[in-house]
Amino acid sequence: NAGVTQTPKFRVLKTGQSMTLLCAQDMNHEYMYWYRQDPGMGLRLIHYSVGEGTTAKGEVPDGYNVSRLKKQNFLLGLESAAPSQTSVYFCATDRVWAPSTGELFFGEGSRLTVL
Amino acid sequence: KQEVTQIPAALSVPEGENLVLNCSFTDSAIYNLQWFRQDPGKGLTSLLLIQSSQREQTSGRLNASLDKSSGRSTLYIAASQPGDSATYLCAGSYGGATNKLIFGTGTLLAVQP
Hints:
Strand content of chain B: over 45%
Largest sheet of chain A: 7 strands, mixed
Order of helices and strands of chain B: EEEEEEEEEEE
Helix content of chain B: under 10%
Distance between the termini of chain B: 41 Å
Number of strands of chain A: 11
Shape of chain B: globular
Oligomer: heterodimer
Number of strands of chain B: 11
Helix content of chain A: under 10%
Radius of gyration of chain B: 14 Å
Number of helices of chain B: 0
Number of helices of chain A: 0
Shape of chain A: globular
Structural class of chain B: mainly beta
Largest sheet of chain B: 6 strands, mixed
Largest interface: A-B, 28 and 26 residues
């Protein structure tokens, strides 16, 4: 049981390049999230999805796009990377107990550096 | 504004000591509060989840409490061990359409052998 798997784990980009981070889960959870973690700022929500085919903006969505074509996968895209997007990105899934978030399960993170 | 604060930012204790980590939140309309552990270079691991109707949860040497009226949660670690060294984060869930989860910035714990 892999849980939440993120690929790639590390990536270095040049300014203006594009890339996609993949999050795959095998727990059949409906809710999935993308967070970024920066020193001194905690985790901030980028985008989230409450089910297959749905996405919504979080706290810091600018410069990112997402897609949830399959329930088990949540993709985070950077169309034109900027140095300000250098961060560690975490995917999480949620065993939801309505009406709130339930217990979150995180991937191991993807460290992105934009030069 | 909904905020979650963790003080202190860092804590060093000798092995065997009992310790308390603090988490405070500004909005008492919280649905649940979750404590996580993060090891260097790793993701977050859920430790305890306290629903708003509960006052505490226990798992092994860990005990977490929730006091909505005072806007505080504490994580108690008994008989600390060097393996407990990590960053501990709390996060408050405010539910609603966005399922908003607000994270604290964490307390870095070092347990000295």
